[in-house]
Amino acid sequence: MLRVQCRLPDPPVGFDLKEEVFQSKDLNVQPQSDTYTIEPDGSLWLTYSYSLKACHVAYPFDGDVDFYTSIGKSVKDPDYVWLEYRATFEKGKMISIRRLYDAG
Question: How far apart are CA 79 and CA 103, in angstroms?
Fold first, then answer.
């Protein structure tokens, strides 16, 4: 999972996306154990469990990360929103972010 603590561009009106958890297939995420976080300063961090201890380390990633989430229970829900973003990183620091696609 990916937690985004930075300000996202073009958020839908009325949504606080800092409370949302995003998914991505662009990072080596182990289900239910690894969490990546984009901090307010744009740095990328990895939190993982090792020998029953939580470790929080800077993650020196280079490249693009596409991440997405949906808000609402189903596409038939009138309040349903699909959000997709792309963040570009150099040495673990976000250098750009943009909204790719939204439907809702």
Answer: 10
Distance CA(83)–CA(104), nearest Å, equals 9
Tokens of 45: 């961090």
Cα dihedral sign, 29-35-40-43:
negative
Count, residues in the chain: 104
Query: For the segment 20-43, what is each residue's pLDDT rounded down to a tens digit?
Result: 888 888 887 665 568 888 998 999
In the three-class reduction of DSSP (H, G, I as helix; E, B as strand; rest coil), residue 17 is classed as: helix
Tens digits of residue pLDDT in 52-73? 777 889 999 999 999 998 888 7
Closest CA to 43 of 6, 18, 73, 8: 6
The residues spanned by each domain of the chain are 2-103
The most distant pair of C-alpha atoms in the chain lies apart, rounded to whole Å, by: 45
Positive or negative CA dihedral for 95, 39, 14, 64?
positive
